[in-house]
From TrEMBL, chain A:
Coiled coil: none annotated. It is found in: Chromosome, Centromere; Nucleus. Keywords: Centromere, Chromosome, Nucleus. One of its GO terms (cellular component) is nucleus. Belongs to the CENP-L/IML3 family. The lineage of its organism: Eukaryota, Metazoa, Chordata, Craniata, Vertebrata. The gene is Cenpl. This is Centromere protein L. Residues 42-62 are annotated as: Disordered. Pfam families: CENP-L (PF13092). It comes from Ardeotis kori.
Automatic annotation (TrEMBL), chain B:
The keyword Translocase does not apply. Residues 31-52 have a biased composition (Basic and acidic residues). It is found in: Chromosome, Centromere; Nucleus. The lineage of its organism: Eukaryota, Metazoa, Chordata, Craniata, Vertebrata. The keyword Nucleus applies. Keywords: Centromere, Chromosome, Nucleus. The gene is Cenpi. This is CENPI protein. It comes from Ardeotis kori. Pfam families: CENP-I. Residues 7-24 have a biased composition (Polar residues).
Length: 346, 746
């Protein structure tokens, strides 16, 4: 099951999808989920993926507008489709959320909606973060602290931010009715207590469910392979893989750093079809790295657990934490994460 | 909520209460309004006494109506007398509606001493309803403050207690602003909050009132009564105000029931009326948190709260003004089935669909609404919750097994209520059964299995059946029995579904592959073959345990009747690995059950054959000749065993009992031929012994061969009388007694 679309074929794919989407989906007999069930339903990984297409950002998006998303640690969540969400009401949502935060923080005291509160909430749309035209525009939520000393000045300190996004999530968005908004991936940066308040508000208001999105070692190895193949302009930092050794009284982590050019050279010998990766290629790539390590240190890395991958593109931790480093590959990484999020909610 | 309901249908409580005939007008007419009551009255020796009581109450009321100046209680015996009259009647039977206006006017006008006013207020026990006009006029007395502060407080407390007895509330709602203005009185504030809490409707919530309440909150700090009122405001207008209630809080209002509650209950019990029951607070916003966990934890089923799609609503209002009066009924207030019926046209689902799981009323509602998004919302929530909270799939979750168990229990009950499985559950089972130890939450998981929808079974068979079979073979006898039980329920649920949808199917154009009749037949057949297979293996593993046999036969009791009871053109015989162990079992209960099952197979097959022959057109489904053949083989074996003692010769089933005489002689069993007939069969021999003790009490040789001819028939009657009804219907249907008469000696 190869998925995604190479850059050149996007328009064709979209028109075909568009035709398919106009077909009514009400013909289902059971009241079950409307998705196609065959794919990824039981947590199986696809046997192959297309490489993240060359980012769209070059065409119509200004990398500056998403630059603030880079070099920050984001905690990943999957979110089921939001019910009754509308892009037209973002300002209202900000007012309500800000009152909700105040009410949560001072439990028992009522808060009027719309008045100026200590914590300012901004909800806005990030139209650049999209994979296909069917994707919803990403939604950014920012909490900032008004400085109590000088309320008049516009000086605000950003204390928490989080964003919902969907990059090439057609698998999901094609199949849900109109009143649902598919933004299956949520990323948060800031204190967990704020994530919890904001998340609860969304859960209550749009009847959705948040779940931490962990990244399995298998998917981490996919990331390692995919990101190795990406071109980066400036001299890139080393690729680093962190493994944790199980069943030890004391935790033991093994860090394995590879020069990016060596890794790229290895990958180029493994990959057969440009622009496309298969599970087999990923396995071969990792096995090569493992056997190289074994030759030097006599340690079988295949018996350990891959917990972290860092490359010049991004770094990802198995606990579901990600840091984006290259704005041009932002959507590419988000596409993979969207796929993982969708497989967790379906 | 009672108050809304009664304001919408103000007549209803009245009608109810007139039947109980405790109002003054009915008294005056000597109870002739109600024939039943009048008969009672005539028969009652207390009739005369009642009449005088009613007269004295009338006198007392007209006294209070006319009383002018401040009369002192101590000096005035008349006042004392009338007060006593009113009190004794009030406490005994409650006061009639007409009494309230008079007595409230006196008590609040300040004409009499404060002790009298207090006394009067304390005995205002309604017999049926309280007229709204009485309350309105007393509010106007309140506004001119002729009475003391204590009396005012007492009046408010009284009003709160009897709120649900007031017959109409429209005018009272018009006085909302007056009540609101009393908030500034510090003493009255808690009670006024409670009253406003009862009175508030969506249109009462205004920004200026919210600001006033917030000012009070700033002045007085966190007060439970303010919190309660503000949360009602939030309930109606979440776009204007919000509040998070602290979790610990239990009571929000001071107890205002005072001296009345007990008296009202007594009166109600005596009058046996369906008086309104005061509704519990619906401040369900604070949930009990049993544990501290990550915020996104789903296991706590959300409290039912109104959908917050107000923004949407606003937009619609602007566009079409017609709908602006169309106010939706907050789900928090939904408490009774009659409320559901009255508000079903403007009910909204809660903001979090998960909360329907704990609300049977909403499940009723859900059952009659055909909206895809409802199911989708529930699907997402439940799917995520099951996966996240599964105690054996997620590490560190195992200490929460009890909670997870309860959750699964709730889900199962909901499925039973809706008579429908949830797709999220079936996906959960697919994902988690391969990891299941067969122990954790066993009965809950197996019960969920019984609700897997038929339509997806073939697709999921390997995900469900393979892990289940593995556990089945390696687990205890009791586990095996539980699996068989839940598979039987699964089959029954499918068959019920099929019967119900048989009619609607024809007019629906939608046929997915698995819901066509042939698809259905295939899936059912697959399940039955699966059960046949695991049963055969289990019987070998468990040495044909009787307990296990019982559960297997229970399953086949459903299978053998599918054609006639469920209108499904499918019959599948049990495999030989099940049939023969039962036929030769040591236990008469199993044998009897097998006889019954074979009798039902026969009935079904005969009916199918008749249908086939009578109908000219070619039926879409015919039982394969193999089914008839198998049945015939079994029946030959059975009759050969139990009746003609020729099983070893006549059994033609490839896995049957046929044996060479040479081989049988080697066993050195004498008279091997009849060793499985109804006399010698190990399951029956006990009956034969008892029968012989009764028939030949002096014979101690137990010569079973005596049971023949007439005695054979007696023996049969004896067996039937012992409760072997299955044997009875089997013999009566499958054995031709006339032609078999000569064999009976064998």
């Amino acid at each position: 099951a190869r998925r995604g679309a190479a850059q050149g074929s996007v328009p064709v794919m979209e028109s075909a999808d568009g035709a398919a989407r106009t077909m009514p989906s009400i013909g289902r007999l059971s009241r079950g989920p409307p998705f196609g069930r065959a794919q990824g339903r039981f947590g199986l990984s696809p046997s192959g993926r297309l490489l993240p297409p060359t980012p769209r950002s070059q065409e119509n998006a200004d990398p500056q507008r998403t630059a603030f998303l880079l070099c920050k640690q984001w905690t990943l969540y999957s979110v089921t489709p939001l019910y009754g969400f509308s892009n037209a009401h973002l300002r209202d949502y900000a007012r309500l959320l800000s009152a909700f935060i105040a009410a949560e923080k001072q439990k028992g005291l009522a808060v009027e909606v719309g008045v100026e509160l200590d914590i300012k909430v901004a909800v806005s749309s990030l139209p650049d973060l999209k994979g296909s035209d069917q994707d919803q525009a990403a939604i950014l939520v920012q909490l900032s602290l008004r400085s109590p000393a000088s309320p008049k000045t516009s000086e605000e300190k950003l204390i928490w931010s989080g964003w919902f996004c969907c990059v090439s999530g057609d698998d999901l968005s094609e199949n849900v009715p109109e009143d649902f908004t598919c933004l299956p991936l949520f990323l948060a940066n800031g204190a967990e207590s704020y994530t919890s308040i904001v998340g609860s508000w969304f859960q209550k208001t749009f009847d959705c469910c948040f779940r931490r999105l962990a990244i399995s070692p298998l998917n981490l190895s996919w990331m390692a392979a995919m990101w190795t193949g990406c071109k980066v302009d400036k001299t890139a930092s080393a690729m680093e893989l962190v493994f944790s050794v199980p069943c030890l009284p004391q935790p033991l982590d093994i860090s394995y750093a590879i020069h990016p050019e060596d890794a790229k050279a290895l990958w180029d010998t493994v990959q057969k079809t440009p622009g496309e990766i298969t599970q087999e290629e990923v396995d071969v790539f990792m096995d090569c790295l493992y056997s190289h390590f074994h030759r030097h240190f006599k340690i079988h890395l295949s018996a350990t657990k891959l917990v972290k991958v860092s490359t010049a593109i991004a770094s990802a931790h198995c606990d579901g934490i990600i840091k984006f480093l290259q704005s041009q590959y932002l959507t590419g990484v988000l596409m993979l994460l969207t796929e993982l999020a969708i497989s967790q909610i379906q | 909520m009672q108050r809304r309901q009664s304001s919408k249908t103000p007549k209803q409580p009245l009608q109810v209460h007139y039947k109980n005939q405790t109002d003054l007008s009915a008294w005056r007419k000597g109870g002739r309004i109600d024939p039943e009551k009048s008969v009672q009255n005539h028969q009652s020796p207390k009739d005369q006494k009642n009449y005088s009581k009613q007269e004295s109450l009338e006198l007392a009321l007209s006294y209070f109506e006319k009383v002018q100046d401040r009369v002192s209680l101590k000096k005035d015996n008349v006042l004392q007398k009338h007060l006593t009259t009113v009190e004794s009647i009030a406490l005994q039977r409650g006061l009639p509606p007409e009494g309230f206006e008079i007595l409230l006017n006196v008590a609040l006008s300040g004409k009499l001493a404060d002790t009298v006013n207090t006394h009067l207020l304390k005995i205002l026990i309604p017999a049926s309803v309280i007229p709204e006009t009485a309350v309105v006029s007393s509010v106007s007395w309140l506004c001119v403050s002729k009475c003391s502060g204590n009396t005012q407080l007492l009046f408010l407390r009284w009003l709160i207690t009897v709120f649900d007895f007031i017959d109409h509330k429209e005018q009272l709602h018009a006085l909302y602003g007056f009540f609101f203005s009393f908030l500034q009185d510090e003493k009255m504030c808690p009670y006024v909050c409670h009253l406003l809490y009862l009175l508030t409707r969506k249109e009462s919530v205004k920004p200026f009132r919210i600001r006033r309440l917030l000012d009070l909150q700033t002045k007085m700090g966190m007060q439970p009564h303010l919190q309660a009122l503000l949360s009602v405001y939030k309930l109606f207008c979440p776009e204007l105000v919000t509040i998070t209630l602290p979790g610990k809080m239990k009571t929000y209002f001071k107890n205002s029931e005072g001296p009345w509650k007990a008296a009202i209950n007594t009166v109600r019990r005596r009058n046996q009326a369906n008086s309104p029951v005061s509704q519990p607070l619906f401040l369900g916003t604070a949930q009990p948190k049993s544990r501290k966990r990550k915020w996104s934890t789903q296991l706590i089923i959300p409290a039912s709260s109104t959908n917050r799609n107000y923004l949407e609503e606003d937009r619609k209002k602007n566009r079409v003004d017609l709908y602006s009066t169309n106010e939706s009924f907050p789900v928090e207030q939904l408490q009774t089935f009659s409320q559901l019926l009255q508000n079903i046209h403007h009910l909204e689902f809660p903001s979090q669909m998960g909360s329907v799981l704990t609300s049977p009323l909403l499940l009723h509602y859900m059952n009659c609404i055909k909206d895809e998004s409802i199911y989708l919302r529930l699907y997402y929530w439940m799917g995520q919750t099951l996966q996240e909270e599964c105690t054996w799939c997620v590490a560190d979750n195992n200490q929460y097994e009890e909670e997870f168990k309860n959750f699964l229990e709730t889900v199962y009950k909901t499925e039973c209520f809706l008579q429908e499985g949830f797709p999220s559950c079936e996906e959960f089972l697919c994902k988690s059964l391969p990891l299941w130890d067969g122990f954790c939450c066993r009965s809950q998981i197996l019960r969920l299995v019984s609700w897997i929808p038929l339509s997806s079974f073939s697709e999921m068979k390997s995900h469900i059946c393979d892990p289940l079979a593995q556990l089945f073979f390696t687990s205890s006898l009791y586990f095996k029995c539980s699996v068989l039980e839940s598979l039987k329920e699964l089959l029954q649920n499918w068959l019920n579904w099929h019967v119900i949808h048989l009619d609607s199917e024809s007019d629906s154009q939608v046929h997915s592959l698995n819901t066509t009749l042939s698809g259905l037949v295939n899936v059912v057949a697959e399940l039955i073959h699966f059960v046949g297979w695991i049963s055969t293996v289990a019987l070998r593993l468990e040495n044909n345990h009787t307990f296990l046999l019982y559960f297997i036969l229970d399953f086949y009791e459903t299978v053998c009747d599918m054609y006639l009871r469920y209108n499904l053109p499918l019959l599948i015989m049990p495999p030989a690995g099940v049939f023969y162990p039962v036929l030769l079992s040591m236990d008469s209960v199993s044998l009897n059950q097998l006889c019954y099952i074979m009798y039902r197979y026969r009935t079904n097959l005969v009916a199918a054959k008749e249908n086939e022959l009578s109908k000219k057109k070619i039926l879409q489904f015919k039982f394969s000749s193999q089914t008839y053949q198998e049945y015939n083989q079994y029946i030959i074996a059975m009759v050969g065993c139990l009746w003609t003692s020729s099983a070893f010769q006549k059994d033609i089933h490839p896995q049957g009992l046929r044996m060479d005489d040479e081989l049988l002689k080697k066993t050195k069993v004498q008279e091997f031929k009849n060793s499985f007939n109804i006399v010698y069969h190990p399951a029956m021999m006990g009956y034969a012994v008892l029968f012989m003790q009764q028939a030949w009490p002096d014979d101690t040789t137990f010569n079973f061969s005596l049971i023949k001819g007439k005695k054979w028939n007696w023996y049969l009657e004896y067996l039937y009388a012992q409760g072997l009804k299955g044997l009875k219907v089997f013999i009566e249907s499958s054995i031709n007694r006339v032609s078999q008469a000569s064999h009976s000696k064998a």
